[in-house]
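Quick question: what would this complex look like in 3D?
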Amino acid sequence: MTDRIDATHDASLQSWVASANAAGTDFPVQNLPLAIFRRAGSDEAWRPGAAIGDQVVDLLTLRDAGLLPRDAADALAGTEVGTLNALMGRGRAARVALRQALSQGLREGAADRAQWQAALVPQAGAEHGLPARIGDYTDFYIGIHHATAVGRLFRPDSPLLPNYKWVPIGYHGRASSIVASGTALRRPLGQGKGPDDAAPQLRPSQRLDYELELGIFVGPGNAQGAPVPIAEAEDHLFGIGLFNDWSARDVQAWEYQPLGPFLSKNFASTLAPWVVTLEALEPFRIPFTRPEGDPQPLAYLDSAETRARGGLDLQLEVWIQTAQMRAAGQPHEQLARAGSRHAYWTIGQLVSHHTIGGCNLQPGDLFGSGTLSGPGEGQGGSLLELSHGGRQPLVLANGEKRVFLQDSDSIQLRAYGVREGFRRIGFGVCEGTVLPAPAP
Ligand code: MN
């Protein structure tokens, strides 16, 4: 097993960008997540950038000024089109070369500081596109506490179906409606049918919800018919961002059998701007274990490395701001906290399972983790769980109540990794605001 902790993770590293050294920043020099950006309101070409403190480093400006070593400059070839797909497809070596170059150039005492400074754009003055052209999107279901809680609502007598502990459950989702953070979404119309209704009717969804997920980007693809062995699975991944899989629960309840979610999930999903690379996540890897008495994974999903470091320990949060809060100048309020350590399957297992039948993955494909809920009260990654199926309203600090989302509600997802001896790194914010439904 390789020790992938290196000098770029050193907690004592400081940046000459002062905001990157603040205790609570998401973007210290140890993180260096990647995004696609341009100056807000401009018609500039979308371009790749890395976060440092409250700034974005324009990577093509660095390259064109000759400030990057050859391997890091080469890593960026093809990103001029305004997506990270080409970089994603190059794999770990290219990513590491870029990380090393950014770490060297942005740390305290670096040479060429004045030239690097010219490549900085304040994040407050930037807007973001999607990090990649997402060819295909698969949504998994690896949060076992979510699967159990939701299963209990839909099927009280058999909450967790017997395949759950053997198969990483997933379905193929819709890539075209994945939007960048900050894009407002319309409440969807759909068929709804209550238990006592004689027939369904077309109406705006009455049970609009969010889902707290991680979005896992595929790196180098695999050939069709060539499954990815578990030992190589993470070589086919690039990094992770926050992902909100907005869901219309009333539409879902009526349509999901027999073929699974369809219109309840395909109207919009929101992806955070920043993709945190696997390298930056290295300090937050944890052993993969199974609870006592649960089946062990089949051999194609098991390896010593998976056992030793397959898991991921990230803290996840959901925040809400209602129209009333916004009018009163109140910031978002925390709705829930959860963690990725409760995931039942690892990110590597998702790759090996997805490809075992011969399916080919491509650079920039996206996996949703599925909703990541914790085991406790207040740790649900969706309102469906927090409101116990819509039966128990949540009361916000200003007295407003929520069972599901109302128009003008803004939802933010946030995440960070914390571990003794390392710098805290964060994922930025994944935000979306609900607009009223169109006329039916
Ligand atoms: Mn989902």
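Answer marked as accepted. The chain has a mean pLDDT of 96.
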